[in-house]
């Protein structure tokens, strides 16, 4: 996905803070304009687009597709959905507060293949609507993007679930895939053990099982009771206990060997998972 496929805000005096994450089939971004900013937009995308708003306007208006202009001002907790090929135009004058929006852009063809079903050919635009489920997922994305680091396995799964939540009202019923058998599970476990220090992706695990990312996630949980992300994290924490108890490596090296981007992230995860800090755990050994 090229940058010009993302929503462009025109007329800003200063560039907004933008944090974006590009993964297979979709891109997610969190955008925070400066206090009291004013801007306009006139945009048509080849991608589907859904944004969660934490915005209050002094004034403004939006028009999506053939709809009439909407001039609501308190946009907090609302969503705007624009399918590919639809034009969206508007202008905004923001109140002087911390306004932001979080948007996901995705390729319908790629996601249709992942989900093993077909999207409706035509979906109407929706401006400032509400969905607790979609909003919750996009708030999770906002938090991840602001922190600046996460786990690719978790991000891929979260992206697919977000897109499914956006579209599930238009999707036909699909069947739950059967659980994975012992042979593919053993292969996946061996791969995970050999690559605990890598940034494991949902794509790489799904490929071993010969399934799409979406169906692999469902089949894996049906077989193990854990999501792939939970399973990998548990294996990393089990290995962390052994390495910490051996007292042969500094914490920074253990974090790196287990695929964590930095020691602080590893220590937060360890405390959340084990219930005590790394230092407390070592002191008890």
Automatic annotation (TrEMBL):
GO terms of molecular function: DNA-binding transcription factor activity; sequence-specific DNA binding
Entry-linked InterPro entries: AraC_XylS_family_regulators, Homeodomain-like_sf, HTH_AraC
Taxonomy of the source species: Bacteria, Pseudomonadati, Pseudomonadota, Alphaproteobacteria, Hyphomicrobiales
Keywords for the protein's UniProt record, in alphabetical order: DNA-binding, Transcription, Transcription regulation
Annotated HTH araC/xylS-type domain residues: 186-284
Domain of life of the native organism: Bacteria
Protein name as annotated: AraC family transcriptional regulator
Pfam families on file: HTH_18
């Amino acid at each position: 996905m090229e940058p010009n496929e993302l929503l462009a805000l025109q007329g800003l005096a200063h560039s907004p803070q933008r944090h974006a994450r590009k993964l297979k089939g979709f891109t997610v971004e969190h955008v925070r304009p400066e206090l009291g900013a004013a801007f306009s937009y006139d945009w048509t995308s080849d991608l589907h687009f859904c944004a969660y708003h934490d915005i209050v306007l002094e004034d403004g208006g939006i028009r999506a597709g053939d709809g009439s202009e909407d001039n609501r001002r308190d946009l907090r907790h609302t969503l705007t959905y624009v399918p590919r090929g639809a034009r969206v135009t508007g202008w905004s004058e923001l109140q002087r507060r911390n306004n932001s929006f979080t948007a996901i852009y995705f390729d319908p063809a790629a996601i249709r293949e992942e989900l093993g079903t077909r999207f409706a050919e035509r979906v109407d635009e929706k401006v400032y609507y509400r969905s607790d489920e979609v909003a919750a997922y996009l708030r999770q994305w906002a938090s991840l993007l602001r922190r600046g680091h996460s786990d690719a396995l978790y991000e891929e799964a979260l992206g697919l679930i977000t897109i499914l939540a956006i579209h599930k009202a238009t999707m036909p019923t699909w069947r739950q895939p059967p659980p994975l058998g012992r042979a593919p599970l053993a292969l996946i476990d061996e791969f995970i053990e050999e690559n605990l220090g890598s940034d494991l992706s949902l794509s790489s695990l799904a490929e071993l099982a010969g399934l799409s990312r979406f169906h692999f996630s469902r089949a894996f949980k049906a077989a193990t009771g854990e999501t792939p992300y939970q399973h990998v994290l548990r294996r990393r924490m089990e290995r962390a206990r052994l390495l910490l108890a051996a007292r042969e490596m500094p914490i920074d090296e253990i974090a790196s060997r287990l695929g964590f981007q930095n020691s602080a992230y590893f220590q937060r995860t360890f405390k959340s998972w084990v219930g005590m800090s790394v230092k407390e755990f070592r002191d008890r050994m």
